[in-house]
Amino acid sequence: MGPGEQLHALVRRLFPICRSITGDGVRQTLAILGEYLPGLQVHEVPTGTPVLDWTVPREWNIREAWVKNQRGEKVIDFEANNLHLVGYSVPVRRWVTRAELEEHLHSLPEQPGLIPYRTAYYAEAWGFCLAHTARLALTDDTYEVCIDSTLAPGALTYGELLLPGETEDEILLSCHICHPALANDNLSGVAVATYLARHLAREPRRYSYRFVFVPGTIGSLTWLSRHFDTVGRVRHGLVLTLLGGPGAFTYKQSRRGNAVVDQAAALVLAQAGVPHAVRPFSPYGYDERQYCSPGFNLPVGCFSRAPFGEFAEYHTSADNLDFVRPDQLAESLDLVQELLAVLDANRRYRSRSPYGEPQLGRRGLYKNVGGGLDGAAWQMALLWVLNLSDGQHTLLHIAERAGLPFAQVHQAAIALQGTDLLELLPD
Ligand code: ZN
C-alpha cells in the first residue's frame, strides 16, 4: 500500500465509530490509534472537573436509536448511519405525533439527498437528522421514537503522544476526534497526525513533538487546563483538519500573525507550487481558538485544505469515504511533513568571516554541489547564507529573502558549518 492508501485505510477503519465529545466512541478511536502509535497515552478526566471557564460534561453513550412508523418499520435508523442521531440526544422511548416529531428533525432542503450532522452538547435535547426526501415521505400520524442513550457521570477522554527530541521545546500537533461518520472533518486530520507521528518517531528530532487527539473545544480546553505550567514550551503548533478533501491548501495564521510557524507555512506552501491561501487569524474555527486565546497566545496555526463551511459536503453525509481521497491525504501528509522539517531545521548561524567575501573555492565548497543543484544555484545559496548569517536572520529569513528553496539554504548552511566559515548559534 502506498502512503495515501494507508491513510485512507485508517480513515475507513475509524469511520463507522460513533464519536462524540465524550463516550466509548472516543475510547474505541484512541484504542485503534494506539495500535499505530505505541506510547499513546489515554487520559480520562472526570465529569464535573472544572476546565478553565468550562466544566467536563456528563458522558454520553448510545446503544440504539430509531424512529418507527405505525407498521413498525424503521424509517430512521442510527445503525444505518450514525449521523441520523443528534449527538448528545437525551434518552427517549415513546410514541409522538408527526407534528411533535417534526420539531426534532433536521434536514437540508437545499441538499435533499444528504443527512446533516447536528449536535446538542450543552442542551437537554434530542433529535434526528435525515435526508430531506426521506423527511417528506413521513406521512403517518404517529411515530414510535427510541433513543437508548445514557448521559451520566463518566469522563472526557483524550489521547496524547510525546516524541521527545534533543530539546524540551515542543511542536504541538492537535486534531479533533469528536465527529461520528465524517471523513474529512475529523478523520483526515486524525490519519495525517497519526502517520506524521509514525514518520517522526523514526527520524532524528531536535524538537519534542506533542500530539494531542482531543474532542473539539472542550478537549483542547481540558488539555490546556492541565498544561498551564508547560505550554510555554510550545514553540510552534498546528491544528490539523480537513486534509483529505479537495480544494486549495489553506493556512490560518496564529493569533500572533508573525510566528515562525506562520512564516514557515507561507514559505512551504509557496515553494511547493500548490494552489493555496494564507489567511489571518480569527477567533472562530477549530481548536486554534483555544490555543490562541489571549492568555495562552500560543504560536499555533491551522493547516487544512478547503476550510470548514466552504465546501458543500461539510457536516453532511457527503463528507464520506469517497470524498476523502488517498492522493489528497498523501499530498497533505507530505506538505505537513515538509513544514515540520523546515521548523526543525530552522536555525540561526553567524559568519566567522564577515569582512569581505570569503574564498569559497579554497575551502572546497564548490565540490559539495548536491541535491541536483547546478553550480550557480549552489554558489548563490552559499553566498546568501554567508551574507545573512549575522546572528539576526534564521534560515527561513534567508530562504525568503533569497527566493531559494529552504532545503538548498539548509544544505548550504550545513556545508558552511563544516568549514571554519559558519557557526551555529544557540536558539
Ligand atoms: Zn466539524
The named CATH superfamily of the largest domain: Zn peptidases
Number of helices: 12
Low-confidence stretches: none
Helix content: 25-40%
Strand content: 15-25%
- In the CATH hierarchy, the architecture of the largest domain is 3-Layer(aba) Sandwich
Structural class: alpha/beta
Radius of gyration: 25 Å
Small molecules in complex: zinc ion
Largest sheet: 8 strands, mixed
Overall description:
The protein has 427 residues and is α/β, with parallel strands linked by helices. It has 3 domains: 3-57 and 155-345, 3-Layer(aba) Sandwich (Aminopeptidase); 60-152, Domain of unknown function DUF2172 (Glucose Oxidase, domain 1, 3-Layer(bba) Sandwich); 348-424, Winged helix-like DNA-binding domain superfamily/Winged helix DNA-binding domain (Arc Repressor Mutant, subunit A, Orthogonal Bundle). Helices cover 31% and strands 23% of the residues. The chain has helices at 3-14, 24-36, 98-102, 132-136, 183-201, 218-225, 260-272, 288-291, 326-345, 375-388, 395-402, 406-417; strands at 41-46, 50-51, 54-55, 59-68, 74-77, 92-97, 105-106, 128-129, 142-152, 155-163, 170-176, 208-214, 234-240, 249-252, 276-279, 300-304, 348-351, 390-394, 422-424. The chain has an 8-stranded mixed β-sheet, with helices on both faces. A 4-stranded antiparallel β-sheet has the order 5-4-9-6. A 3-stranded antiparallel β-sheet has the order 18-17-19. Helix 1 crosses helix 9 (326-345), helix 7 (260-272) crosses helix 9 (326-345) and helix 10 packs across helix 12 (406-417). It is elongated, with a radius of gyration of 25 Å. Bound molecules: zinc ion.
